[in-house]
Amino acid sequence: MIGLLWTNAGSWLGRRPRRKWAAAPALLGSRLVFQGALYGLTILVARTTELGEFGSFAASFSLAGLLVGGPCNGLGVYVARTTARGTSVELLSVIRTMSVFAAVGITGLGILSIVLTALDPLTAGSCGLFFFSLSIANLVSGLNTAVGRPYLAAVLELSTGLTLMCLVALCAIAGTGIPLLLTIAAVGVLAVTTVVWRSRPSSEPRIYANEERMSLRRLFRRSIPFIAMGSASAGYARLDVALAAIATSSTVVAPYAAASRLLGPVALIGSTFGSLFLPIAVAAGDQDIRGILRRARVSLGAVLIPIAVVLAVAATPLMSLVYGAEYASGASALRILAISVIPYAWYWPGAHLLNSRGREWRWLAILAAVLSVNAILVFILTPQLQAAGIAIAWLITETCTAMLVIWQLRRLPTDRG
Hints:
The chain is an all-alpha fold. The chain has one domain. The chain contains 17 helices and no strands. The two termini are 37 Å apart.
């Protein structure tokens, strides 16, 4: 499947695959290790806590991804796209801005944990710190990919994944609580990211240092569409769990949250695809975008749909094997989530194409619209259908997203004219 993406990269460009695409197997493999570490963390929490406690953790993790990970990763996408276009950005300014976002987000998590009694303040705060560390790692990885160093990005993600695995294993042996586990993991991610960044070749030019230092205000102003897009994207991916925690009990949220984590391979491949496809789409001419989009959809669908079939067919044994017998009730939710992979594979390349053409606000408008739809559906369906209701709401949301992306793509020019 990895080879299919690599092979089609050349036909998208009309020539031999660029180095970025040639590195796709290495980047995907390193992200597989990293996602495996995150899986280990999730499984450890699920296996060592009660169903309701895991549901509370899942809600805190989702809110942290929304309030901290979303804005920080949105800023990272802006920096990666700017760098891919040949404009350098001073790295420390970006990190300082991310630190401000993280501080605001973690404060928001603390307030929410007071308002929503189902959330634990220490767990919520440590989730926020963990997402901040992941955002820094994603920033450095995205910059390396954008400037033609995907192998260094792969080294970073592989090192981060292996470090997380070791830390999770040690914490499991020591029996540490969730807050301490996440804090240790965050420190480990930041340490590895720093080491990998400083180990780049000394002869390499300082591509991220502007002659004129970019102020925080200027950086923030220019990246507002991407920050909003990152927040909306994080909400799109995580808000249903948080809303379900409000609409129903944590014991209902837990099976759905566990089922959604099993879609990790889909998110992994989609993330790798986006990191590699965005610079290619930025460089492509308007007259080439239709062909690029068509081949991208075919390639991504050929990789993701077989995974969805396996998840749907083996839903019950997978839930029991990975999380335990008490999570088997989430099998129906997993089957429905597997179906949602089909519209995702269809619209995901188009979403990146919109961003590559400076249509960030259109993508943001789409996300805002479907987030509203998802919120309404979660509150309507969850009390009656429980975990399956949350999954049905997600399937309908993904289908609406695909339809809106198709509509926006039809408005793109096909010629620079």
